[in-house]
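In this supplementary section we document a worked example of the pipeline. Step one takes a protein sequence of length 278 as its only input; no multiple sequence alignment statistics are reported here. Step two produces a three-dimensional model, which step three serialises into structure tokens for compact storage. The input and output of this example are shown verbatim.
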Amino acid sequence: MSTDYQQARLALGARMRELRTESGLSGRALAARLGWAQSKVSKLENGRQSPTRADVTAWAEAVGRPDAVAELVGRLRTVETQYRSWRRQLAGGMRPVQEAHAAQGKRTSDRRSFDPTLIPGLLQTAEYARAVLTRYTRVHPSIRDVEAAVEARMERQKVLGDRLRSFHFLVWEGALVSRLCSPAVLVDQLESLAARLACGNVRLGIVPFDADLRVPAGVGFSIHDGALVITESWHAEMWLDDPADLALHVRAWEALAESAVYGPSAHRVIARARRSLL
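The serialised model returned by step three reads:
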């Protein structure tokens, strides 16, 4: 668990406790009013459990401070945007994760991303997506809804057809040759990727192995309207909206973009990857 995440959760809990004590209610009395176990009130106040939006709304109303709902929801959003554990997210399956990203995609007008190991989800073929998502079950064995997740990922891709939105993908050459699927599936994926080189609102740049890199390739991330960064590790996904975090990722993306090739040059890199599979 990240320190920033826990500190944000502790701060939220402290504010909830403050509202309760100001109302003159004991933890037991508040729990009874809400119909909760007293242990839940204690865990929320001490940052040992994350509340839902329904929880903080009910809390504010129960302590007689409905005007504090917006504040608590804002604090909760800070907790949620900093750290989303895969264990918690995947408890409901892969499909809800895809749907959450689809919802964010509909809110985004300008998206920039960098992918060092995978073809971007918005550009994946169904067979490639199926192979990749199936491999994640090795790390997260609780996953049971790969087919539903593939369907949801394909549905997400419809946003690319909205010409009022712009997409700028950067892909490390290593993603073009990573054997996360059969050679035949990867060849089809590369052909689909090459077709994207000509699309107007979708710009695709490839960072070749032999590029003069301004920064190390690092981990993948996406920038949404310059207001949100989504990145991930093996254990969690981070949704970051702190200005300093945003500025850092913008600098990294711009440095990587300087090393990317486009158009015919990008097509040659994709063709080189395709030849290595035949």
